[in-house]
Amino acid sequence: MGSIFRSEEMALCQLFLSSEAAYNCVSEIGEVGLVQFRDLNPDVNAFQRKFVHEVRRCDEMDRKLRYLEKEILKDKLQIIDTGENPAAPQPREMIDLEATFEKLENELREVNANAETLKKNSLELTELKHVLATTQLFFQGRDSEPNSSITQNLLPAEEGKGPVQLGFVCDVTNRERMPMFERMLWRVCRGNVFVRQSEVQQPLEDPVTREEVFKTVFIIFFQGEQLKTKVKKICEGCRTTMYPCPESAQERKEMGQGVEGRLADLRTVLNQTTDHRHRVLAAAAKHLRTWFIKVKKMKAIYHTLNMLNLDVTNKCLIAECWIPTVDMGSIRAALRKGTERAGSSVQPIINQMLTNQMPPTFHRTNKFTAGFQNLIDSYGIATYREVNPALYTTTTFPFLFAVMFGDAGHATIMLLFSAWMVLRERQLIAAKMSGEIWNIFFGGRYILLLMSLFSFYTGVIYNDIFSKSFNIFGSSWHIGDNANATEHNLQAWGELTLNPYYRDLYSGEPYPFGFDPIWQIAVNKIAFQNSYKMKISIIIGVFHMIFGIMVSLINHLFFRRFWNIVCEFLPQLIFLVSLFGYLCFMVFYKWVSFGSGEEFDIQHNSDCAPSVLIYFINMVLLKKDKPTGHCDVWMYDNQFTIQLILLVVALLCVPIMLIPKPFIARRQHNQRMRQLAVSRQLLETQGAGTSASSHEEEFEFSEVFIEQAIHTIEFVLGCVSHTASYLRLWALSLAHGQLSEVLWNMVMKIGLQQASTVGCVMLYLIFSFWAVLTVSILVLMEGLSAFLHTLRLHWVEFQSKFYKGEGYAFAPLTFKNIINGDEEEAA
Fold it and tell me: What share of the chain is helix, strand, coil (3-state, %, to 5)?
């Protein structure tokens, strides 16, 4: 639990690696995944580093693998994932990998180019076949006449003139371009051409885009060379494909037979080409994931090596890195293993360095705590070694959510979904389901599981299951002979108002667990439940904030900030307890000392029950109310004196939080400066000169005082606003219950009131509609709303009492993301 309670203790280490063993040592460190390297060459351009050539080679191999992956997915082949974790290849193996990838890429590009050429030829021959078939239909009547030509005597001869000579061209174009082409042809040729067209019924495949396109075959008849030139230019401009067409039927028939023969040959060659491509891709798919892992590991290693420095002899690489102190043994073992793999006789050296720099924050998490840690990290990475709120969030987060989402029925739906994800998590992880929303739900499956369990508990406390109640233990109320809410009793009772003062109706003993089910049909149900939920929300909020202040004590003790205990922790705790802790005390005192029944005297019955909020306001304003009737002004003896003392104590805490801390900070700064001056004088006396690392920032008392004033004002005002903010627990619970009740009465109740046979069918349809609205609105939307409000209560109201969140995350060199298929680099 130590790592989740407080971040791991880190050490800044210096590594000395021999040049021949550096690659293997970094590879083994990446397999361990517990070392964060620092860049020792921040001012060196990325293109001027020592291993930039190797990084470029890895980028080129990665590009070729992505090309192979795209072609494999295009052929709808499955990339085999054997689950193995291959080691990073040796540098000498890079040449073999490059040769393999180069051969595969060239072979695939050649096969693709040949296939594209064959498909283009096949498309042209197919279009020519349709052209010949279409012209055969157009000229069928003319071809039946002997010794006739389709370009002669198409029109009757005029007097004194010979027969009219007509020319024609045959073209093919996309079907959607045909209207535009006809309009242009009509306008340019002024209606002096004749067009016949026929649509090709079956779609043809485009060899470039591999999409299906629909074509149209058309024939244009014209007279004269001038029109012929215009028609051909229009066809070229509209990107139509022109095909030759013989004039005689016999020639067209012979050409068609030749086209069919060539098409058959092309299909045979194209099928062989496709089969060869498929075999190449299938063989590559077996090793593609392994190749990806190897290349990404090599790239991450060389990227890390670029962060290292070379010594003056160019035989040793020097690195600086952050390592968890508890893992120093495993890192040393990894370095020894890397040296043995490289066959080097020079052992690596690891030295621990002293530094004033803040180390990175590293929390070890498992599949249960990872989701809660992500909620905290979204607010801010914890400062090094400060208390991590994620440990407490595992309990407080689902509990506060459940207070707002208290419905056992809706919680059951959420429980079934989260339990399914938890029980089948291995299968779901292996399926590698994509989708941002799914990844969010699956990543927070344990959060959902706990939220649903807590919500089921609060739903039982509220006795609220889909806006209805269960009478498990028997009601404590008796109206007439019994308290069963039958149709006859409900009609007899009319509007039912419950008052515990009348003991002939109330037994005097509360319901054993949760709310009495009879409150579900009472007129004063909302008034009763609102009073309870509002007070319990304030109590939960005050205790939550007090707990946050108590956690700050752990930070002060650990970092040895003892003055903060006196000037910050104690006054904050006393201020909060004196005002809002006393408010909670009055709530409990009212619940215990006032009530209905014979056991309470006339001054402590329900008529004299005081308003806690009015008492609290009067406490702050130093105001006294006049007595009313037989009721006392105060809840207990000496109440005004005690309230005055608590108010004075709370006000005295404000200057204690504001004034001493800046003066203490200035005094500590002056002490450090005097010690620094003494050390400098001693160094100068010994002739060692001054140290550049002894620089101390200037202390601005005004800035420190203003900052402390801001923190003090923020805390004092925040106590009021944060306490009021916890009323969202009551508001969201009320809204959720009322929405659930409205949905039942407006939808489900209609189906249950149907008594006919048709009503059974209507009930089925209405239940489906009600179920969809319940899941979409009350579970998803209301659940998301309660989740966001709970997140705000933790980020603002709870964590602001002790959590700084000014650290930076531990980012080690790890190959885990590469193995899991993450696209991000491990470097």
Answer: 60, 10, 30
